[in-house]
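On clarity, I found the account of how folds are encoded harder to follow than it need be. For illustration, here is how one protein appears when written out as sequence plus C-alpha cells.
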Amino acid sequence: MTRKYVIDTNVLEIANFTINKDQFFDVISLLIEIRNTEKMIVMDLEGDIIKEYFRHTPNGSFSRIWLNQMIAKKQVHFYSNKISNKHHNHLREKLKFDRSDLKFIGVAQHTCDDPHIIINETDSDWNTEVCHYLLEELNICVQNCKQALNEDT
C-alpha cells in the first residue's frame, strides 16, 4: 500500500528556510523522497489545507514548486476534514488544541494507512498529551520528518 502523509504547514515553511532552520535538511529530504517515490500527500476536499499552503509558500519557493509538482503528478489524495463532535470537543476544550489545525486531523483519520501519519516539525500544539490522544483514539501518529524518513529503513 502507498503511504499517505498529512503535512502540517510548518514543514513547508521550514523548507523555505523561513522558520527553524535546524530541521531544514530532514524536511527537504522527506519532501524529495515523497516526490520521487509513489508516496502521497493528503489534503482536504474542502480546500482549507491547499489555501493555507499557498498562503505560506511564496511563488518560486522550494515548497511551492514541490507542491505544484505533487499536484501535477497526481500524488495528492483528498478526504473530508470533518471530525466527530466528540473528538472536536475533547481536542478544543480539554486539550486546548488550535482550531486551525483540526483540518489535518480530519483528513488523517480518513486515510487507510495504519497508523495514519501527520508530519509536524515545530508546532507546539502537537504536544505529548495531544499526540497520545490522537494515537489512542484515532490511530493517528504525529511524526517529525526524521522519524518519517527512518520509518522505511
The chain has a mean pLDDT of 92. The radius of gyration is 14 Å.
